[in-house]
Amino acid sequence: MPELPEVEALALDLRGRLRDRAIVKVHVAAFSALKTFDPPLTALEGALVDDVTRHGKFLDIDASGLHVVLHLARAGWVRWRDEVPTIPPKPSNKSPLAVRIVLDDQSGLDITEAGTRKSLAMYLVRDPADVPGIASLGPDPLTDDFTIDVLRQILEREGRKQIKGVLRHQGTIAGIGNAYSDELLHAARMSPFKPANSLDDEELQTLYAAIRTVIGDAVERSRGLAASELKGEKKSHLAVHGRTGQPCPVCGDTVREVSFADSSLQYCPTCQTGGKPLADRRMSRLLK
């Protein structure tokens, strides 16, 4: 799933490719992806792209005052095409293509989604705040107003909720997902199950520094990369996420996993939980 660093890099890459180009046509191949009807997609025809920005994990293409807002969900991606086919795509449940944006020089974007679970969303709005997911976003962790006091207030407000869930909830902090919450908790040497309001002053400082460093470094590494390079860059720098059974790069202990209904988390017992494996209730039920 693209998270803040990848979406930031996508915005930068697409800004250079799309700015001052006119949108000729938008083809929707997966009707479930389009979440709005007013204004209609035809309103984009002839619109000039002014900017491409990010709101949390949402990508925002600003075109003559209209905003094409994309949420790539778990398996979505944006692919640049130097030349798009002249024949419009046919709607199909089997094709990964969800939306195609055609520009005035016949280049364009293919917005795709792998797999059968269709969660990718596209909105055409006059104001990004009209998108419910943007309107409810928490603070961005890389802005100047995300201070340690803001983080303290968030954690106190969330009470005994597990710190992992608090960090990846978009209404609490914008842009951090499953992968980077694993990574920054590993950097902070903190259990993902630790209650949010249980951090002392030193732990709070450590977590704040980990958020700024892990997310900030990932943004800097991704800056300037083309969309096609971002997934590989992200995977090559993960310490624990997606590395179940492999050695921790810090201490050499085996990275472990806790599974949930539709996701999982990875952690290092030595670095994060005092050497004790966390209970994996899903696996426990399977073994009974």
Automatic annotation (TrEMBL):
Belongs to the FPG family. It comes from Nocardioides koreensis. The keyword Protein transport does not apply. This is Fpg/Nei family DNA glycosylase. It comes from the Bacteria. InterPro entries: FPG_cat, FPG_N, H2TH_FPG, Ribosomal_uS13-like_H2TH, Znf_DNA_glyclase/AP_lyase, Znf_FPG/IleRS. It catalyses: Hydrolysis of DNA containing ring-opened 7-methylguanine residues, releasing 2,6-diamino-4-hydroxy-5-(N-methyl)formamidopyrimidine. Keywords: DNA damage, DNA repair, DNA-binding, Glycosidase, Hydrolase, Lyase, Metal-binding, Multifunctional enzyme, Zinc, Zinc-finger. PANTHER family: FORMAMIDOPYRIMIDINE-DNA GLYCOSYLASE. It holds the Pfam family zf-FPG_IleRS. Residues 239-273 form the FPG-type domain. Residues 2-120 form the Formamidopyrimidine-DNA glycosylase catalytic domain. The keyword Lyase applies. Its cofactor is Zn(2+).
